[in-house]
Amino acid sequence: MTLVGVALLCVSCAPAGNTTTAPTSASASPTSSPPVSLSANSGPQAPGGTIPATIGITWDQASKDEAMDVAENAMTDFARPTVDDKQWANDLARWLTPQATADYSAVDPANVPVSRVTGTATLSVDEANGFGVMAAVPTNAGTYTVQLLRTGKDAPWKVNRLTPPAS
Question: Cα–Cα distance between 117 and 137 in angstroms, integer?
Answer without folding.
Answer: 7
